[in-house]
Structure prediction request, 479 residues.
Amino acid sequence: MNRVRFAPSPTGYLHLGGARTYVFNWLFARSTGGRMILRIDDTDADRNTEQSLRSILEGLRWLEMPWDEQHFQSERRDRHVRAADALLSSGAAYRDFTPEDESTQNRKDAQPWLCNPEMRALSKRDSDRRAASGERFTVRFRVPRDHPGGVAFKDLVYRKQFRRYSDIEDFALLRSSGMPTYHLASTVDDAELEITHVIRGQDHLTNTFKHLLLLDALGVSRPRFGHLPLLLGPDGSKLSKRRHGALVSVPNYRDLGFLPRGFVNYLALLGWSPKNNREYLEPADLVSAFRIEHVLRTNAIVQFSDKPGSAQCDPKAVWLNGQHLRKMPLDALLPYVERALRDEGWWDSEYAGARGKWFAEAIGALRTRLNLLTDFTVRCRAYFRDEFECAPKALKNLNRPGARELLRPLADRLERLPEFSERSVEREVRSLAAERGVKAGLLINGSRAALTGQPVGPSAFLVFAILGRERVVQRLRAA
RNA sequence: GGCGCUAUCGUCUAAGGGUUAGGACAGGGCCCUCUCAAGGCUCAAAUCGGGGUUCGAAUCCCCGUAGCGCUACCA
Prediction:
């Protein structure tokens, strides 16, 4: 059975890149009957924060793509250290006593740093003696750099990969604090958790050679690797919390009013394509269409902007979300709208009870012209609240010559109407307009303004029907 | 600097030797219409540059250029 993992480090919130990696892993697991493992890579104690961990879990849960297992890397430290010890005694690794500040100096040099030959050549006796005397050291992997060959593997996405031993530096396994590094911890855990497919960002493509070296030295079997193209910001640089801020965080998209499925659909199309021109894909469609071999090799730019007034996110994401908002089963949509209204303090328990049918019908009518969940609160106030402002353009419709005077007579007629429905109301409105010799549009637009305070919205007759006779009559008179 | 990855409309992408280089978003126009959407139709918009290979190249090869990644006791 396939086992894949997503291994975020809790040093910031979950951003689009991480979420996309999670989504691809999950899709791969589900489409092949495998298991999804969440592993929190918290080996860098200094930079980890509780808040970051919470936000990652929250963001991941919001995607509605549950994982099957969860592990904390920090709880597995013993195994990492044991692996380092084993490599040390087999000679595959060695102690490097170079002081930290001196070794960081090396990377400033024009020449690439590969190893410190002096430390590499240290005899076992000297090494043991210096370690026993309490001298600080890091443990490094001894890359067989004198051999002419190299490491090769076949990436699921980037195909054949090869790197000469002589181009790989002697990377650290254990820090001088005794803490394992990412390379060691990640590799040991992948092996012990029996990960079969490592699917991660392309920024790890060149790290994979090190991981393979480690895996082989540890004598464990290699998982398969698949690297994903990177997500770039509009400025062309790799998406990061540092540069691009909260704008690219998953919670931001939730707050913008995205449905999990709309967001996931958008993410899935960044660096992957079903190859048949389909764009709108429901979660189940994604699972059945997903093929790791169809992942692209080119980085994708995520469109967004922090300029006030302009769209904060890719308009295509908004469009896709609108597709889901309209096409998903109404029953499935209702809970999301409920939460949006609750957040606004507009939720009425009657919506779920006596007026449940009304609520469903209203949402069903409203959703045809909305894209985001937040549109229900920012654009539909008049359907849920009795106090609302009249927009300037709506006021203009109301003030057209002859419009306002007709509202009261209309209210009177509607009050007496035997049956109050979309069709019967339409008949009344049109006949009143005809009798007074005005265009129906005048009355229709005026009514919409009086009833909703908006110049735009659903068909006016539908508005009448949604609001119901009582509120309609009252609002027409008030205008 | 070294090593590696990548290169199709503004953006996401299809076409992996033969197509008028297709679709989607965004933009323009038209239809529908009580408004705004939705929906339908339509217009504009791309193969980074240069060399090969081939009857034929977006597609294969080489060179250049550009972008990105790695080059940490970060992950």
Observations:
- The longest helix of chain A spans residues 460-478.
- Chain A has a mean pLDDT of 91.
- DSSP finds 22 helices and twelve strands in chain A.
